[in-house]
Amino acid sequence: MTTLDLSTATRRDLNGALHALPKDAPTADWTVLHPEGQHALAAGVNAPVTVTIKGHAGYYCAGMNQQATIIIEGNAGVGVAENMMSGTVHVKGDASQAAGATAHGGLLVIDGNASARCGISMKGVDIVVKGSIGPMSAFMAQSGRLVVLGDAGDALGDSIYETHIYVRGSVKSLGADCVAKEMRAEHLAELAELLAAAGVDARPEEFSRYGSGRTLYNFHVDNAGAY
Amino acid sequence: MCGIVGLFLKDKALEPQLGEMLAEMLEVMTGRGPDSAGFAVYGAGNAGHVKLTLRGDNLDGLAKALAAAIHVAVEATAHDTHLVLSVPAASEDAARVWLEAERPDLVITGSGQRIELYKEVGLPAEVATRFGLQQMAGTHGIGHTRMATESAVTTDGAHPFSTGPDQCLVHNGSLSNHKSLKRTLTREGIYIATDNDSEVAAGYLSWKMRDGASLAEALEASLDDLDGFFTFVVGTENGFAVLRDPISCKPAVMAETDQYVAFGSEYRALAGLPGIANARVFEPEPAHVYAWERQS
Hints:
The complex is a heterodimer of chains A (227) and B (296). Chain A is mainly β and 227 residues long. Chain A has two helices and eleven strands; from the N terminus they run E-H-E-E-E-E-E-E-E-E-E-H-E. An eleven-stranded mixed β-sheet of chain A has the order 1-2-3-4-5-6-7-8-9-11-10, covered by helices on one side. In chain A, strand 1 (2-5), helix 1 (11-19) and strand 2 form a beta-alpha-beta unit. Chain B folds into two domains: 3-39 and 135-293, Glutamine Phosphoribosylpyrophosphate, subunit 1, domain 1 (4-Layer Sandwich), CATH 3.60.20.10; 45-113, 2-Layer Sandwich (Alpha-Beta Plaits). Chain B is an alpha+beta fold and 296 residues long.
């Protein structure tokens, strides 16, 4: 195991070393001490390695992640796992705004709450939030799955494309073209799989599904007069 | 950009360290605002007296001249380009009249029973050291590191802004209706000295509080009347409050323990505070007023 202490080493030391890891062979685990909310920790990693950050992380932690498992034993700042391509990011505390923004793949698990715009423009990532999510989450979400065990704030899924959203608690309001949908057998199966992957013990039957009403996909001819 | 910080102490034992803690928080926010910095500290007040914080050059001998002119004892404490005068509350108006007539070059950055307000162009660490923030004691304080967007990089444009007794505000964001609001405030008798949008926000709260609103009520009302992006941290003689715009455009994180409530634009600013590892760290909700009052 490699331990790096950010009270003495720099963030560049950390990210430089992580970027130098072999992409196609497993590496022994890394532990990062004293993160103190610094930004861009373990961003841009592309290697099958597990990195544990012992404390709170700042902005864009684990951004652009590929392959790696990144565990944050604290809260994460704005844009955790933004643009993740693959791998797993696990936030043990709360996440700030825009968690998993634009992420294409992988799994983001947040044990606490995520604030505004969780999963904004998500493009294929799976996000599981054990607490609640803030307003404007899954804004313009394109694909992937968002699972929320708690409640969702205002304007959930505004201008959504094809992301599947599952919420166990209440939804304060739905955004434009986001609608409640029937929970069919394939959705229960998909949700059970996601809950298992995130290590959550919850019954899929307790969740409601939301998705695209698909009314914003095409130009509405009745609006032609506006031009 | 811009960075803002705030610290409201619950534990009297920490009061001697307020400035030291605030200075560290301010310095960490340099990356968000390297142009200029400022801070307000609510320190000890002298019963029946008002403190006026003046900014300008040639401050030597000013207190003596003022005392001779208005026939009362005036105490003065110099901090680099700022001078804090303590005058009997009954003579405040006379002091202001004299200052305006004799020293129109000076700016009164803040006034009140306990507030002292300092701001200058330069890196936050330099600004804090010039004024000796590290040595200041108090019950609460707020600070700002500025990256200018709406007006010039001048000391006048630096935060905090004070538009009422013992009131001050720091702002991260930008307002789009400040020009029209300024006209309303001017009509209502609230003086806005600069072209800065944030000063208008401060003036708006002063106006509401002058007309009887509590700090929390004034902030609630601002949600309807201010158009733009904002995270505000506001101080009054005994209060401390935080408000974010309805879409929480600008970042904010808070930490609360039995000893203090702290605010930072980013968690980094709070990382050095005592007992932070066990603090309740949370993000203030959009359009929700958070307010604390000091029990004296």
